[in-house]
Amino acid sequence: MPTAEPPYRRIANDLASRIRSGELKPGDKLPSTRELAESYQVHMNTASRALSLLHDRELITGQPGRGTYVAERPAT
Known about the structure:
Elements lengths: L6 H15 L11 H8 L3 H13 L3 E4 L3 E4 L6
Antiparallel strand pairs: 1-2
């Protein structure tokens, strides 16, 4: 029996698809962890874990005191 996708992975995959489609462009600021938590109706820790996953995938970058942004795409 298949198990449901964890909420943090669902959020990360949703944001990743929006980045890949161009809806979110390099340099765009992402919502705060609190805003993501409210938007997806999850705990802030879950939203934070989703952002960590995107950071590990090198899709986003954090700027202390400024926020989280879509990373520049590497030159191909």
